[in-house]
TrEMBL record, chains A, B:
Keyword entries, A-Z: Flavoprotein, FMN, Monooxygenase, Oxidoreductase
This protein's name: LLM class flavin-dependent oxidoreductase
UniProt cross-references to SUPFAM superfamilies, sorted A to Z: Bacterial luciferase-like
Signal peptide interval: none
PANTHER family the UniProt entry points to: ALKANESULFONATE MONOOXYGENASE-RELATED, C2H2 FINGER DOMAIN TRANSCRIPTION FACTOR (EUROFUNG)-RELATED
Length: 449, 449
């Protein structure tokens, strides 16, 4: 039996997850605009033997363009650029099922998977904002349930398309003039409520068979979707107890889909402020907090809750906010903000400071050993299979994690010193993908690759 | 006044444009599947100081999957991979206005333009086959005129989105907490027959302002579209006289859109078989012709004409084929095949051999000097601003062009020895893009960059 080990993803965002990172002296904000910055981040993550890097995404400029350093590149192209400068790191792009066509998106991911030698992952989102809807012909975002209905059908189509080419379909027989065995190239012939797609996909089978499937919604619909499809889940959990509850809930849902607990990795987010002493780490976090602009943060908070809070007094609690059933946007983020504000009885100023670090993800200020301890505790006490590491500032915050926390985790036998395989799926310890059309023999050939 | 010089694009396709290239001993067909092959081709083209490389594209597996080495990668991701391994070469991807959303596609090209430092180009197509339509919910391809109607509106939306961010919109003022000047970030607010798109685009202004716009349809609708939008046109012309007629026709249409002849480069295709003697070059071409599989070629021809010719006798002429007004697919390719067959009174076997080299593009077998002479003649006699070089086999056919023909063109003062600028637009000698929202001062700043 192999020892269970951690999986670590680097969630990359501009020059850092802290909303004021770009104003801090440790950061050069112009790097958010430079592809070389993101390539360097991929290389740092690979140096640290992390499983993957990941970009979130939205399909609109946010309401705070004057302070938004985030939306600069489209994730699939950006990860393709990183692919060429790295060999092992997994490459996870966010893309929407609401505003893409399955044929086009399945093809882009298959192409990235082929270009990267089997390192592509797809963080599946349904795009919950009205601003995004307005870029695709809609007055407002479709209802939450409708978005998940489309997402489910989208996945079924994409999965069929990725299985278009069996692993041994390509013959390359120049003498006989046979490039591919047409009997091993399959149509999808999908006809459903949202899509009609004939197939086959015009990218021959990629190294992983299909990209890693990732999901991050923690609403009820999100958890159902994750239990059915996801192989990794990013989640925001504030406390060990909440993390354990979420972990147990999600793992418990897998059997209903014929899946085992180890078929899905739960990766809570952590925003680590790391320094040689606890006191220095806390002081560093405070420096960032002090750079938050309240007017910007109030607009961000207004966007998360769908309420206009821009004139709300900073030292009062939140006004009463509507029940979650009444909203159609990002339900898990909404619930998280609400729990945070009400559960800890925070003023708006305090809430803004807490959200500023990582938009509701857990922030943690400490020494390398304290960060490693925290990761180990969650990992060993049933709250995590690893972490979604969200450096508050970049590249420095990733450098310090890789150079000081990773070696401790390695020394404790909790984290790899070298990559286990050549694909993202292999490094995550997942079974190779089995093409639905292949015989047992073909499956074995795939596994051997 | 600057001397007018040639522009050369390398049209890359799998292991070569000749349909039997992958069977020839000079070719390793497995390279069609390997991203390193395409990266090497980009580097060879850059070594030869070519303006750009280009990938055609379709959104379906062709009818001859058993002999199809072409559809392996999606072009935007593939060109992003080439971007990271090159510094100067332009990167032109084909993408469809019929099966993409303007917001998504405008963003992908802006991202590629940013990643490549201003080298992106878009070959705009409307996707003329029923097989593609069947991957996007349709029973058959939309009417030719409807596709061009959507394409025109698509371009108007994309152009508005690319102008979302003025060149000086990004402030990066950390002290004041101002990342961007919101008054210089503009919505599109487009509401038309096919699209409603709010904007702004969430990729800040790219180095070229927008990608180079390329077009390749030679139908009447295609020429109208090209005259309005295109900055480079790829075209298949069989003879100097036909090339001159097309060139004069297209250039003559520009004034109606307030454009000058030098605002659009006409680049006919040429498939060069190059060898030290004319006789060896012709023998080389014959070797490729001899590898054509008639049954495969008949299916290709059937697809081009929308007729089932698979049982037609090879040594008879084509049967009567329907008038061009009756078809809704790729009209310019249809017309070209028809003209070739009828104009030269070819049997089906002869037609297949002629089409096998480059699907109707001009093939030319000769010495490096003869190829250079041919290019110079077309360039100086009003038929071309340069050529779309379509090597019959790859990488060897591109290597030999770069190593033997390019130096002759350079020695004659017809072609650059070093790149003129840092962007594709600059190397093509085009004016910098002027953002619609910018003042004269801002435009000057853009030009200086």
């Amino acid at each position: 039996m192999t020892t269970r080990t951690l999986h670590l993803n680097a969630f990359l965002m501009g020059v850092g997850h802290h909303e004021a990172a770009w104003r801090h002296p440790r950061v050069d904000p112009s790097r958010a605009l430079d592809v070389a910055h993101y390539v360097e981040l991929g290389q740092i993550a690979e140096r640290g033997r992390l499983d993957s890097v990941f970009f979130a995404d939205g399909l609109a400029v946010g309401p705070n363009v004057q302070r938004n350093t985030q939306a600069v590149f489209e994730p699939i192209t950006l990860l393709t650029a990183i692919a060429g400068a790295t060999l092992h790191i997994g490459l996870i792009a966010t893309a929407s099922t609401s505003y893409n066509e399955p044929y086009t998106l399945a093809r882009a991911f298959a192409s990235l998977d082929r270009i990267s030698g089997g390192r592509a992952g797809w963080n599946i989102v349904t795009s919950g904002t009205d601003a995004e809807a307005a870029n695709f012909g809609l007055d407002k975002v479709r209802a939450h349930a409708d978005r998940y209905g489309r997402a489910t059908e989208f996945l079924d189509v994409a999965l069929a398309l990725w299985d278009s080419w069996e692993a041994d379909a390509i013959r390359l027989d120049a003498a006989d003039g046979v490039f591919a065995d047409a009997t091993k190239v399959h149509r999808a012939d999908h006809a459903g409520e949202h899509f009609r797609v004939a197939g086959p996909l015009n990218v021959p089978g990629s190294p992983q068979g299909r990209p890693l499937l990732v999901q991050a919604g923690s609403s009820e619909s999100g958890k159902v979707f994750a239990a059915r499809y996801a192989e990794a889940v990013f989640t925001a959990q504030r406390t060990l107890a909440e993390g354990q509850a979420f972990y147990g809930d999600l793992k418990g849902r897998l059997a209903a889909y014929g899946r085992r607990p180890q078929d899905l990795a739960v990766l809570p987010g952590i925003v680590p402020f790391i320094a040689p002493t606890t006191q220095e780490a806390r002081a560093l976090e405070q420096e960032f907090t002090d750079l938050i602009s309240p007017d910007y943060a109030l607009r961000q908070l207004s966007g998360m809750l769908g309420l206009d809070l821009t004139d709300h007094p900073l030292d009062s609690p939140l006004p009463p906010i509507p029940p979650i059933d009444s909203i159609e946007g990002n339900k898990s983020r909404y619930q998280l903000v609400r729990d945070l504000a009400e559960g800890e009885n925070l003023t708006v100023r305090e809430l803004i400071a807490r959200l500023g670090g990582g938009r509701g993800h857990r922030t943690f200020a400490g020494t390398p050993t304290e960060v490693a301890d925290e990761i180990q505790t969650w990992f060993e006490q049933g709250a995590a299979d690893g972490f979604n590491v969200m450096p508050p500032y970049l590249p420095g915050g990733l450098d310090v994690f890789v150079d000081t926390v990773v070696p401790i985790l390695q020394d404790r036998g909790l984290f790899r010193r070298e990559y286990e395989g050549t694909t993202l799926r292999a490094n995550l310890g997942l079974e190779p993908h089995v093409n639905r059309h292949s015989s047992g023999l073909v499956t074995a050939a795939l596994s051997a690759g």
